Amino acid sequence: MKRRELLTAMAAAGASVILPSRSFAAAGHSRVVVDGLDTSVLNEEFLDLLRKGGVSSVHKTTGDLNSYGALHQFVNENADTIMFARSAADIHAARAAGKIALTTGAQHANYLEKALDKTHLATYTPLAPALRTFYELGLRTQGICYNVTNIFGGGCMDHAVPLTRVGRRLVEEVHRLSIILDVGGHTGDQTSLDAIEMSGGVPVVCTHTNVAALNPNPRAISDRLAEAIAGSGGVIGVTAISDFQMRNPNNYKAHGPRSPQASLNVHLDQYDHLKRLVGAEYIGLGP
Description:
Structural class: alpha/beta
Helix content: 40-55%
Largest sheet: 6 strands, parallel
Mean pLDDT: 88
């Protein structure tokens, strides 16, 4: 089912929500439905679908300054329907005002390479102000790599590549600004493990991935990485993408150009495996 059809069906049936934790409810917060990573075109028609579907907050992937400029312009033009959210409190405030909260993040750090200029002291001082610029524009989630290696570390096609020296500076600045660090999935295992190790107890997440133990697709994470994410206090988002659950280096020729559709049982096996491995409290829905 396409996303547009899914939202329409949600609107017709009444959107279901994930119940908040007891402590969350005890604090007086209302239930919130978050569309955690949306690649649809953000326009008035789509905003209407989100509202009919009961979505409280939508997260958009961003990149360069132009993408932020376009988002801010759209929010200004639709201020009665949507507002930028830079904190959890903003999401609740938007919901209370009958608006959709917009959060933004980057799935990789490639856009920051342009700002780097190694000084004669062998430091990367421009990284901090560059990241701060995007933080002020609304950046709240930051990945490291997108499938392939960059100057910060290794992507999921290069699982053995470690976090680089400038990658460590990136992780330091991400945590200093209280941006959520998103590892695994698109970022390789060793780079992700290195980032978690130096995060000093700050929760680190993986927003959308699958289980390599069930299907060794490069976009899936190892049990070791899943345990490290949960050990940090972070959450692992499980996708419903058939490729990641069905296609792997051993069967792709037999499958041909298109992966078979993952069944519901195959998908539910993902949650069962992670529940046994790390516990249900560290599992999220990242379809």
